[in-house]
Amino acid sequence: DTLYFFGDNNFTEWGPLFQHYVPPPFRIPGTSPAYSFGIAGSGSGVPFHWHGPGFSEVIFGRKRWFLYPPDKTPHFHPNETTLAWLQHTYPTLPPAQRPLECTLRPGEVLYFPDRWWHATLNLDTSVFISTFLG
Known about the structure:
Residues 1-134 form the JmjC domain. It comes from Pitta sordida (Hooded pitta). This protein has 134 residues and is mostly beta strands. It has a single domain (4-133), classed as Cupin (Jelly Rolls, Sandwich). The protein is 8% helix and 39% strand. The chain has helices spanning 15-18, 82-88; strands spanning 2-6, 34-40, 45-49, 54-60, 63-68, 100-104, 109-112, 117-122, 126-132. The strands form two sheets. The protein has a five-stranded antiparallel sheet with strand order 1-2-9-4-7, with no helix packed on it.
């Protein structure tokens, strides 16, 4: 299971957390960042989707990321988990059709560009926070 917590932008709900956490210093002029905080079990994740740009940081555990640019729609079933996609679809992809990928560890941050397809897989019990820039 994965639990996500979304807070407001005036830090009312996030005040105690942000006394200990410093978000990435990058911004898009004229916008306010939005945050989500997650706790997830090993093997859970989010299937392929896209949205505006942002950062994701792992606080505890490891999170594997799979990314495709906006002009390269990944082959996936919307009701399939990332773990199922990795076990069944990923091995059949020719190398040129495989996504960019990386594994984030505690203290590491990934920037995901605007409209890039991405999916995640928590390799361990994980705690993470995302900063949405749009």
